[in-house]
């Protein structure tokens, strides 16, 4: 049986009459990276705030390790988090800010602080005041505070905001390492699709407060459309060949919208969505019928295209 | 709770506000000294110095200073977006508010104590008579007790700091209360005004205006309870500001 570290049932948040999160049923498996994807204002941060007890749900339930955290608030100590931009005390150094966090957690250990600073690459800046930090450094400090106590769950809201490309790769590797070595479960939100695609094991897509899709990376691969694109000299004849083969126009293959509307000689491509394994055979049939094939391309729909299609 | 208070002090590291409030608490003694330079017969005993100092501190300065302190303690967590850091540590909302009240009390008592010490130092500089153990202890008790009672009346400012996160409204509010204290000090309503009632109690002036001292106590207690209740209910019901 799958063990869910975090589960929500009909989780709803209303601000006045506006529904920010609507009946969210989320399932986060242990030791996985759950990518929460959505446009700005989709409800990702509000969902995370409810998971962290920063916002009160209007309706619904949250279970952390199978327990309701309202009856066992100690569960929150197993979570590390970043929500939006990290907030720290401007007048204090990176070390002192982490000291505050660890003192509040009741597990102050200077070694842990130094180790966390080293992991995020801020050891050399440990005595620098927070007000003098760049946005990327602030984000790194937020990550250090989140991982310092070796939490079992990490809830990270847009953690790569402000990081440089090297920083993004470093943090991505760190998150993967935490999952693979320590079995940490991570919920990570982003509106940067490529980031979620690279890092997440499970993807939840939110739109207008609704979780419209929750699927594993494998399921996503299956769902994303693959097609073979042919660019030919005679589109009409190529369509006839496919029709005679038993393929249906519109479902098994489509021709370029421009070809239909304007000129099939200039716009001469067709997309084949089924019988992809027969692409070589179709190519042979086209050539034997005197059709020149200029291009034969196996294309896979990107997450971006899938996401756009889903939320529209 | 010890950790929470320790953290509150750590937050003041490199911060100028603590030093600034301490310097402000020296002001009544400084005013006394200026008055003495103008008129050396103004005060002639330690008892008089402590009486005038208490009037300046509890009746006027502490009202303004306390409103600034409480506004800083509460408001900075909103301004610097650190409330979410504390809450996700995790810290319960009850513990957070209790910790803030305790830190406010400690800070307030430090300021009162500094004001007391400065008045003693000024008295010694002026060379006035009557420096006895009883007078010093009684003077300290009056000032600390008055400071504590005044602290109780500041709970509505906790609520105010939660709604309006910057210090300006608290400073204006504190200044308005100081002016109100000045205006009301000689009227028969002085004992009913929460922010002047502490001074009425410790100075014994309630007897002069023939209002029983328990009336002032009730006014202070009711103000405290109202402030505590509205700040707690508001904080518990409201989502944590990001």
Folded structure, characterized:
The complex is a heterodimer of chains A (312) and B (242). Chain A has helices spanning 44-51, 94-105, 110-119, 135-147, 165-182, 193-199, 217-223, 235-244, 257-261, 279-288, 303-311, and strands spanning 4-15, 18-24, 27-29, 33-38, 59-64, 79-82, 153-157, 185-190, 202-207, 210-216, 226-232, 253-255, 269-272, 293-300. Chain A is elongated. In chain A, strands 6-7-8-4-9-10 form a 6-stranded mixed β-sheet, sandwiched between helices. In chain A, strands 1, 2, 3 and 5 form a 4-stranded antiparallel β-sheet that branches. Chain A has 11 helices and 14 strands. With 242 residues, chain B is mainly alpha-helical. Chain B has helices at 2-11, 16-25, 27-38, 46-79, 83-87, 93-126, 133-153, 155-163, 167-184, 197-203, 213-237. Classes of the chains: A alpha/beta (312), B mainly alpha (242). The interface between A and B is medium-sized, with 33 and 26 residues.
Major sheet description of chain B? none
Q: How many helices of chain A?
A: 11
SSE succession of chain A: EEEEHEEHHHEHEHEEHEHEHEHEH
Inertia-based shape of chain A: elongated
Helix percentage range of chain B: over 70%
Task: Please report the distance between the alpha carbons of the first and last residues of chain B.
Answer: 24 Å
Tally of helical runs of chain B? 11
As laid out across the biggest beta sheet of chain A, the strand order is 6-7-8-4-9-10
State the separation between the terminal residues of chain A, measured CA to CA. Answer: 34 Å
- Our estimate of the beta-strand percent of chain B is under 5%
Q: Would you identify the regions of chain B where 5 or more consecutive residues have pLDDT less than 50?
A: none
Low-confidence stretches of chain A: none
Shape estimate of chain B: globular
On the 0-100 scale, what is the average pLDDT of chain B? 89
Q: Classify the oligomer.
A: heterodimer
Tell how many strands the DSSP assignment of chain A holds. 14
Largest sheet of chain A: 6 strands, mixed
Helix fraction of chain A by DSSP (H/I, runs of at least 4): 25-40%
Strand content of chain A: 25-35%
Radius of gyration of chain B: 19 Å
């Amino acid at each position: 049986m799958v063990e869910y570290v975090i589960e929500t049932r009909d989780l709803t948040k209303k601000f006045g009459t506006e529904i920010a999160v609507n009946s969210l049923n989320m399932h986060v498996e242990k030791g996985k990276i759950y990518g929460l994807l959505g446009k700005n204002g989709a409800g990702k941060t509000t969902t995370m705030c409810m998971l962290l007890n920063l916002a009160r749900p209007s309706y619904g339930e949250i279970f952390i390790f199978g327990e309701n955290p309202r009856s066992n608030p100690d569960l929150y100590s197993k979570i590390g988090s970043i929500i939006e931009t990290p907030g720290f005390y401007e007048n204090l150094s990176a070390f002192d800010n982490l000291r505050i966090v660890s003192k509040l957690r009741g597990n102050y250990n200077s070694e842990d602080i130094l180790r966390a600073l080293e992991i995020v690459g801020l050891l050399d800046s440990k005595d620098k005041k927070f007000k003098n930090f760049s946005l990327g450094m602030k984000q790194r400090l937020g990550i250090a505070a989140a991982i310092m106590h070796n939490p079992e769950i990490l809830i990270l809201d847009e953690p790569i905001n402000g990081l440089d490309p090297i920083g993004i790769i470093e943090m991505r590797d760190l998150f993967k390492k935490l999952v693979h070595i320590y079995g940490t479960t991570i919920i990570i939100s982003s509106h940067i699709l490529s980031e979620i695609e690279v890092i997440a094991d499970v993807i939840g897509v939110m739109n207008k407060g609704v979780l419209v899709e929750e699927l594993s990376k494998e399921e996503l691969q299956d769902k994303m459309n693959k097609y073979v694109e042919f660019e030919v000299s005679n589109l009409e004849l190529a369509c006839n060949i496919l029709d005679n083969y038993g393929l249906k126009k519109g479902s098994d293959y489509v021709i370029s919208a421009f070809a239909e509307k304007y000129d099939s000689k200039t716009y001469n491509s067709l997309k084949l969505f089924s019988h992809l394994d027969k692409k070589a055979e179709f190519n042979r049939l086209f050539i034997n019928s005197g059709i020149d094939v200029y291009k034969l391309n196996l294309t896979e729909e990107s997450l971006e295209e899938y996401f756009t299609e889903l939320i529209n | 709770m010890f950790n929470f208070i320790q953290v509150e002090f750590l937050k003041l590291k490199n911060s100028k506000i603590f030093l600034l409030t301490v310097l402000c608490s020296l002001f009544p003694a400084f005013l006394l000294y200026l008055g003495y330079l103008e008129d050396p017969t103004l005060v002639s005993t330690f008892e008089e110095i402590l009486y005038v100092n208490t009037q300046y501190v509890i009746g006027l300065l502490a009202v303004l200073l306390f409103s600034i302190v409480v506004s800083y303690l509460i408001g900075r967590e909103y301004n610097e977006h650190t409330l979410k850091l504390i809450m996700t540590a995790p810290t319960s909302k009850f513990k957070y508010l209790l910790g803030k009240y305790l830190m406010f009390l400690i800070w307030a008592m430090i300021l009162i104590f500094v004001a007391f010490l400065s008045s003693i130092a000024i008295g010694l500089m002026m060379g006035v008579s009557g420096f006895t153990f009883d007078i010093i202890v009684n003077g300290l008790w009056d000032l600390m007790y008055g400071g504590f009672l005044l602290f109780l009346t500041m709970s509505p400012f906790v609520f105010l700091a939660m709604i309006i996160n910057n210090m300006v409204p608290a400073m204006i509010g504190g200044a308005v209360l100081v002016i109100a204290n000045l205006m009301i000090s000689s009227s028969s309503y002085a004992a009913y005004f929460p922010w002047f009632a502490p001074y009425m109690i410790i100075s014994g002036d309630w007897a002069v205006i023939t209002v029983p001292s328990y009336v002032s106590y009730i006014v202070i207690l009711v103000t405290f309870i109202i402030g505590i209740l509205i700040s707690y209910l508001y904080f518990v019901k409201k989502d944590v500001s990001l």
